[in-house]
Amino acid sequence: MIIKLIISLVIILGLILILFKLSNKKINDINDNKYINVIDKVQISKDSYILIVKIGKKGYIMSSSGGKTEKLEDLSEEEMVNIQKEKLKRFEETNIKYENTINLIKERALKLKKKICSGGKGNEK
Questions:
Q1: In this entry, which stretches build a coiled coil (predicted)?
Q2: Span 24-79, pLDDT tens digits
Q3: Choosing a second label site near 18 at 20 to 30 A (CA), which of 9, 52, 95, 107?
């Protein structure tokens, strides 16, 4: 009974990771087609943020706090391209980590399944 529960939990966690990965791709596809994009957002305090915003091909560093938004600096197209490349690189690295985690969960689930099916007998180390 407990073993079935553990297997079910592993499968559910694997499915959650897969759904997270797929939904994240869909959200990014939707956001890429917008004219105005928030490229990055960092919380500085409870209600204060620094944002990198892309409007058309132009980029801006902005601050937002207490309902007030200010433009701090303009960014060149080259800077925006570099920022987006770096963000894409981090996104791809995160995806690789998720894929590795999913593969590890699958391997462990298969090993556990084999162990259960063999009745816990064998030469497992």
A1: 81-108
A2: 766 666 666 678 888 889 999 999 999 999 988 899 999 999 889 999 999 998 89
A3: 52
Q: Which domain holds residue 67?
A: 35-75
Asked if residue 123 is part of any domain, the answer here is no
What is 22-74 written as a DSSP string? HHHHHHHHHHHT-SEEEEEEEEEETTEEEEEEEETTEEEEEEEETTEEEEEEE
- Which residues sit opposite 49 in a β-bridge? 43, 64
**Residue 105: which pLDDT band, with cuts at 50, 70 and 90?**
confident
Task: Compute CA 106 distance to the chain's CA centroid, rounded to the nearest angstrom.
Answer: 20
Kindly tell me the burial class for residue 72, based on how many C-beta atoms sit within 10 Å of its own C-beta (0-12, 13-18, 19 or more). Answer: exposed
The reply to whether 15 and 2 lie within a common domain is yes
Asked if residue 80 lies in contact with residue 87, where contact means CB atoms within 8 angstroms, the answer is: no
pTM of the model: 0.55
CA 89 to chain centroid: 12
* Whole-Å CA distances, 6 to 42, 106, 108, 121: 38, 13, 11, 19
